[in-house]
Design a protein that fits this description.
Length: about 325
């Protein structure tokens, strides 16, 4: 089985999920299969990182920074027509959402999104995905000729290693495209920077109100952690936007991520699934965040906070710079 992995670039490099997609590809391609990475831009970084694939094709290598979705779509459609992969993997990300559905429609391929697990089943693939905003897990059987959108954090990252030999060159020309990216303006952070935090305590909708937030804030301080929230918490005005984790917030990779009352919708998982150690507390035993957490407990989040506060009073934790 031939699998095409579409890398997920930022304006300066590749997102970590790009290496996770290579692992996902190996899961389904089999011993006699082939994994090809379509590296969108950043040719130097692609040559240094994607050696775990069998082949790397450099697309839009003359593009500076982040390629536009339109440029990526045209280049990838040409590659798919030429290479004829059985499966195409994209990240569930902003660029992946632009590329995946368009490519499936253009190339007459089936598509499944919110994918969290893959298993080869003869000539088919068993695909585990989240539906209804992460409330349910579904298992679908799909044949060759499909595009799968992978939720970040669902697979271990493949080793980052140099490519042997040169990158194969694909389509580069952008002159005919109607849209061009002229620059990326990043807002100046004047408050907390969650991307630099070693420990994060994130609360979900279940935190309730300001009283719950204040208890969580005190616990975060005792843990030498930064307080963060899921989108419902921020939309409800309980925390400022800079403290939001997820697709429309910050993407973080702390040493410790303590999630209290966070259900784990795909949009949230995209922002935190790469954390080194994830501890999830939720009263719902089927909470999707349990699928990516390293340690879980099914209990009331406030009971957990009370118990942890008592423990910390007896055994204060080390400074935030120490290991979690």
């Amino acid at each position: 089985m031939k699998v095409l992995v579409i890398s997920d670039p930022s304006d300066i490099a590749f997102e970590p999920v790009s290496l996770e997609l290579i692992t996902a590809a190996r899961t389904v391609c089999g011993d006699d299969g082939e994994v090809t990475v379509a590296a969108l831009g950043h040719p130097t970084e692609a040559k240094e990182q994607f050696g775990a694939a069998d082949k790397v094709v450099g697309l839009l290598s003359e593009t500076e920074g982040l390629p536009t979705a339109e440029a990526a779509q045209v280049a990838l459609a040409s590659l798919v027509a030429e290479d004829r992969p059985d499966v195409v993997l994209v990240a569930y990300s902003a660029l992946g959402l632009d590329i995946g559905p368009w490519l499936a429609a253009r190339c007459d391929m089936d598509m499944l999104a919110y994918v969290t697990g893959l298993e080869r089943a003869g000539a088919d693939i068993l695909v585990r995905s989240q539906i209804y905003g992460g409330k349910l897990d579904a298992t679908s059987r799909i044949g060759a000729g499909c595009v799968l959108s992978i939720t970040p954090g669902s697979f271990e990252a493949a080793p980052s290693q140099p490519v042997v030999g040169d990158l194969k060159r694909g389509t580069d020309a952008e002159a005919a495209y109607s849209t061009r990216l002229t620059g990326v303006d990043r807002p100046e952070l004047t408050g907390v920077d969650l991307t630099q935090a070693n420990r994060i305590l994130c609360v979900g909708r279940g935190i309730g109100d300001e009283t719950g937030i204040e208890q969580a804030r005190g616990l975060a301080s005792a843990l030498s952690a930064e307080l963060a929230g899921s989108r419902p918490v921020v939309d409800g005005g309980l925390l400022e936007k800079l403290r939001q984790v997820g697709k429309s917030g910050q993407k973080v990779k702390p040493g410790l991520y303590l999630a209290l009352g966070v259900s784990g919708a795909p949009e949230h998982l995209e922002g935190m699934a790469s954390a080194e150690s994830i501890v999830a507390i939720n009263s719902d035993p089927d909470a999707p965040i349990f699928n990516v957490a390293h340690y879980v407990a099914t209990c009331d989040m406030f009971d957990f906070m009370d118990a942890l506060e008592e423990l910390l009073e007896e055994n204060p934790v080390a400074a935030a710079g120490d290991a979690a």
